[in-house]
Amino acid sequence: MLKIDNLSVHYGGIHALQGISLEVPEGKIVTLIGANGAGKSTTLKSIVGLVKPSAGSITWNGEPLITKGTKNIVESGIVLVPEGRRVFANLTVDENLSLGAYARNDKKAIESDRERVFTLFPRLKDRMKQKAGTLSGGEQQMLAVGRAMMTKPKVLMMDEPSLGLAPLVVKDIFTIIKEINAEGTTILLVEQNAKAALEAAHFGYVLETGRITMSGEGKKLLADDGVRKAYLGEAQ
User: Fold this and answer.
1) What angle do CA 69, 74, 79 make, to 5 degrees?
2) Please, where are the H alpha helices in the chain?
């Protein structure tokens, strides 16, 4: 289990996270929803060591993460698909996937995982030798997820995977997220598309200006009048 307890993060004079606590049980999809600037991305960056908290703890199966470097955290099985996809534009699709497996030396398993990525995302196989920068936004998001899958993650964290994508592509991405989870990968999802996120998630947290204000099963949060009004644009 991934566990955050009383976590605080400061950016200069800004108190970005104000003592948040949450749990990501093994094998589940957990989503963190909230408006821009609520602290969602900061939470993910704190988990992988890109941001250093000022207080609190982050543990993975009881082992502290805050003292570890990002490389060690990734090697322990916690991987982030960043907002904006961040593929290597001048490298091919195949080269991007190979970089995902940079810390591995199990060649047969790497090739097996590569084929699995191509099964999940057939379009990537068709574009194996194409430079990533020439792909559509949806294809780049698929590549970013595929590259993360090549690390063989135990926890896959995604930061705004639907951002800027067409509705049909968003539907495909969430179908894949659920499929990856069904195969045993734990998922922590940050997403502004609250409806899609809560429909997919077993459990959700609402983050407002650095504080957790609500939590519960995904479907229960989706049915909550306050959540519907604030994040789904529906009147009470």
Assistant:
1) 125
2) 40-47, 70-75, 93-100, 107-120, 122-126, 137-149, 167-182, 194-200, 218-223, 225-231
End-to-end C-alpha distance for the chain, whole angstroms? 36
Q: What is the mean pLDDT of residues 164-170?
A: 81
Residue 168 lies in a domain: yes
CA distances from 206 to 23, 48, 191, 212 (A): 13, 21, 11, 6
Looking at the structure of the chain, the number of domains it has is 1
Q: Is 185 helix (H, G, I), strand (E, B) or coil?
A: coil
Q: How far is CA 70 from CA 67, 114, 121, 222, 226, in A?
A: 10, 23, 27, 34, 37
pLDDT tens track for 180-229 = 999 899 999 998 888 999 999 999 999 999 999 999 999 999 999 988 88
Q: Which neighbouring-strand residues pair with 174?
A: none
Looking up residue 20, the CATH number of its domain turns out to be 3.40.50.300
